Please model this.
Amino acid sequence: MSGLAGQLAIMHETLGSLALAAGDAAHAQPRFGTGVGAKFDVPRLFGLIPFIPLLACALCGLCAAMKVKTKLPAAITVGCLLASFGLTIGLYAQVHANPGDFAIIHAFEWINFQWGQSEAQSLTANFSFYADSLTALWMLFVTGLATLIALYASEYMSHDVGQGYCRFFMAFSLFVFSMACLVMGDNLALLFLGWEGVGLCSYLLIGYFYKKPSAVAAAKKAFVVNRIGDLGLSLGVMLAFVQFGSLEYAEIFRKAEPFLALARDGQWQDIPWTVQLIPILLTIGAFGKSAQLPLYVWLPDAMEGPTPVSALIHAATMVTAGVYLVARMFPLFLVSEHALTIVAWGGALTALLAATIGMAQFDIKRIMAYSTVSQLGYMFCGLGVMGVMGGPAHVFTHAFFKAMLFLACGAVMHGFAGQLDLRKLSGLGKMPGWRIVTVAMFVGCINLAGVPFITAGFYSKDTILGDAFANPAMVPIGWILLITAGLTAYYTFRVFFRVFVGPAYYEPGDELHAHDDHSHDHAHANKDHGHDSHGHGHSAWQPHPPGWAINTVLILLTILSFAAIVTVFKADGWLYRMVTNSSAGAGIAADHHHKFFGFDAHAAMKVVSGIVAIAGIAVAFVLHYSGRTSAATSKADSLVPMLGPIPRWAQNKWYVDEFYHFLFVRPLWLLSVVFAAIDKVLVDGLVNVFGWVPKALAKTARPLQNGVLHDYALRMAGGVALLLLIIVLMVNRGDRTSAAASIPPTDNSIGTLPAAPAAVDPIAVSLDPIRAKAQEAVR
Amino acid sequence: MNWMLLLLLLPLAGAALVAFMPEKSARQVATLVTLLCCVPFLAMVGQFDWARSGVDQFQTTAVWFEPLGLSFRLAADSITMLLVGLTVLLGPICVVASYTAISERQKTYYAWLLVLQTAMTGVFLARDMVLFYVFFEFTLVPMFVLISLYGSTNRKYAAVKFFLYTFTGSILTLAGLAYVALEAARANGFWSFDFEALKTAARGMTFDQQKWVFIALMVGFAVKVPVFPFHTWLPLAHTEAPTAGSVVLAGVLLKLGTYGIFRFALQFTPVAAYEYAPALAVLGVVGIIYAGLICWVQSDIKKLVAYSSVSHLGFCVIGLFALNGVGLSGSVMYMINHGLSTGALFLLIGMIYERYHTREFKKLGGLASQMPVWSTFMVFFAMASVGLPGLNGFISEFMCLLGTFQAGGTTWTEFGMIPGRFGDASLLPGATFGNLGPWFAAFAAVGMVVTAIYILYMVGKIVWGEFKAPGHSAHAHNHAKGHGHDNHHGAAHADHAHGPLPRDLSGREIAVLVPLAVACLWLGLYPSPVLRTLEEPVAMVVTQVRADVLRNAQAALPADPQTADAHTPALLQQAATITEPGRR
Amino acid sequence: MNTLFCTLAQSGWPEPMPTGTLFHYLVISAAMFVIGLIGFVTRRNLIIMFLCTELMFQAAGLSLIAFSRFHLNHTGETFVIFVLTVAAAEAALALALVVLLFRRKESLDAERWAELRG
Model:
């Protein structure tokens, strides 16, 4: 409880500082150019922000090794994250005091390598942190939300206390470390470390219920799809290095300055295509991590993970890493003629597509997942249309309300044994103990739907829409987003009207909470029976409403989602300055003022998007609330036949997964099989041919070795005879030649015995004295 | 005290000792000896002058056979130190990991393992070509024995294939080296097999000569690495070898090939290496993707990891042929890192095999619930293998790719001699000398995705999911090498019945894995000290290659005096500035 | 070819070969050799085969001695003494082997041993 008190105090402090900042509008003049100001110093203490969660990770690992069976890992994690959050506030204060400037906090050397004098001959990527307002903005909600969600998870995961609990919080803390490296790193390599690190944690946490095949598959899918994005990112990083000779932001931004000037004058042809390619490659990475077309397919599946994970990683923080990358690298995006257009169109199409899928789903967590994909599309649009504030602002507000929506869904899932089908739950608000969840859900829904004037989500979304319509080149995107806004309002309130209001009804889900080692087998055994009743008694199954930790977190998030209005409701408010005082501020110069039917786009959007949101909610009200008497059906069902196959297609996610499977996965697998066959037959076969040649030769000679002694003897005799024959023939020829040369036939040639008396035998001659002696001796 | 000589001879003496000790104490003696090897190595680390890491130190020379100029010449630079360090680290790990796996003919086993260590250390320390070759080939003998006596079912075939294949390749390497020695003797008037003398002679050869020497050298080294079409012996040898054999094979023996490329192919025949870099890099890239995809459809876990070695070493090869600082040092780092992570993966698979006597994906699964500690290590090392930043694999993979990307050859345009391979200097100002370029890196980087696919496939199959294992029982594990010695079973087990292995890892097994894990983390999070030791040797190689290629290109300049005049001074200036190794 | 028919006495050795010529010795030697060879090839009994080899041996020895006498030096004789010694040793060994082989298969038939078949 003391942790909670401390946390509340710090929350208070944040709110105070936010309010302070909001009231201090003319504090700093936004910078132009690369948005990078001078360097200032901050205490090295702030370098600990990422490492405190790492410590928590290590301690949780220790807990796992010591087989701790209490909630100690949660306490450690929450404590460490809180400390990290506290430091982040301190860092924010430092950054706030130096608007537009940046600090570099050097922790330790990572890769530092130089093999020659020229600039291209060194590679530096240290564990150094880049602190400017963009960093601070991201870190505030990353560490803040991580603390809250860790607290939530301490209760949510309580059925897994033991190994699983330690494992969960290990990965959770490691995630915060990685995310902090991603956001704070002062170079692209450290960003990449964080980038892949969050990918790993996402993999581990999606696959947390590792006995479920679907969870394992989802985890693998997430990692591999992300890797495809990372491929683009890493190529972008390399290209940036080769182009600018450095991986460090400060250096890259400095070197990009001349190109930026060219870009501002529209002299695209003077900017080398390699420079223009960098942001496009980075975009591939961003689209992978932030689940945009065509790489969005992993995120909905990622909902297999425990809900706190979905809330933190797959809604609030990790998936915004792509947006962060674009914002951080905004100067580079500006020097590319097409990069931002790609970003905007990718975002817009994803937003629309995901919204259409979200409308047809029945699993409320999946609906939220698709809405996340959709909202991420908005954020990319916000940056892509060269509005400065929209993207990051929507990231910030979305983080709070979407986390809250997920946590509310999680509370439902937790209380109803894994039930997430909106056709099997209804009227939760009327059940005892579910009021806070319902209120939180409602607040989340109005934010997501963008109910005008009273929600932060409205302001941030409105900024994006306004920016889109203000940019003459991006008006089609504005229309797409406007349509999406209506769809969003509809599917959001579809969930709310179906699940939280209306007649009270529930069916428990088919899953136990017990996913830990002891009882998991039972849980699976029961799966076949449909409704699970194990561990809760057979007949008297009761939903159990959330406890204090979940409720506290939901209340805090409700407050925060409203508080976030303070940061965004003015066009040049706190968030605007947080963004424009950083490298993302480079886009200010490209401010557009295109009119929306003769009105100022931003002002017009305030009205139009508000109307659209209300209309969406109204449609949802009519179709899913008014006159609904059962959980399973509503008026919308009667509309379905009119639309033909479209609802079915949307429900099946437009068959994108199947399409990818047949277009990429299958062929690749077939290719692998072919390669394996080639390897066995052709490559290894060729090697074996080399082995076979001597072997085959030996085989032809082998029958000779028949083991029959007489055959050997005969062959030997034959051989000798042959040899003799050859010798005789040779001798005969030798005789002829020697005769022709008139050499006396008494030479040493074989076979012709010397005519002893006539010839002078050299041996005989040499033996003559001995012979004489012998003769004498005989006499 | 000559620590280096001690380091070299200690395992050999240990092997003799093991041979004369009773069977039962063989493994204790082997453990002790391999651990003792750390002492001379640490003493060397202490005495090594790291500021001059590119210079051969601890020079030890003894005349071996004077008329032919043979000498017993040993020395160490930082690359040697790193690779010897890897060998010394893996020594005790291999021995300790074999305690339960090897239950028969222990004396022979540990003696040969120790002999192998001497041979491997010798390869890295040798500075005389003949000595190098003797050690290089001598590594085959212990490995042959280890595979053919202690391997699995198909061990005889695998051992013969391994021996003959690599031996055939090495013969050509020998021919190449002999030719260089002949050239050196012709130039000097006396025989010498000293590396430096040979290098000087080889660099003086014409391009045509260099070309053939390079090809001859590369055949042997490419088989050893193994580079793409020459790799088929490796999966076979890995699958059949005992665990420790696989660890040494992946950890050190494959590095003999890359080390050879670094030491000979790049330094003796720099111009040919430059000219043929694209061809070799293509083989490397093809290997990365081809072997990676083959991994995906394997049914045997060990075979998957074996093919992953082929895929991984493709990165190492392209890094080498990037011929720039980042690529070369990344490649050297790759040698170390691959030894650590893949070695650990083989150990982990061996541990599973000892428990369940199978390595089939079909028969195993969901080990996380039964063996959480093992699974933790498995995921850890799998991630190291995938190249997750923060672990060792990333540093080297990233540097190899970056080096390849950078090696665009753009420096040439300022002389107007050789057009840049992928555009002109203004396009990529940060590009360095080299003959590869972004396209190579881009295709090689696809390997990142492929690696993720097959490693996660492996992890997903055996670590996650529902528990599945043949028989489900965790006892009667004395049959760990069941396939190998069916006819000895009865007798052997009466004498060497080890207690049943615990369900999860034993303390011994954890102790085997922890040093590797620590090394992986260290090299992943704080590689800077190691990287810095590589600066100087790498700078020297890069400088040499550049100077030679420049000289060669200059010789090929048109005879037109005007053009020659216009270019020569700049060229010479360029050559002069780059002959000094880079300094901070 | 006339040299083949000259008497050994012509060589001037103190005790010239009184009766035969080199030709006769060689003919006998060749005959012995051929008999031995034919016997070795045709017979299947190990002992007979062994005797046949001995016969060939002695045929070679005989021609050596004949040549030795013809050339009036001792080289050939020396050879023959060596050959005889070795043959004796080998005979002992071979007979022992034959005995062992017989014990194995209760037969002296050479055809029954074909273990070296490739």
About this structure: The mean pLDDT of chain C is 81. The radius of gyration of chain C is 18 Å. Chain C has one domain: 17-116.
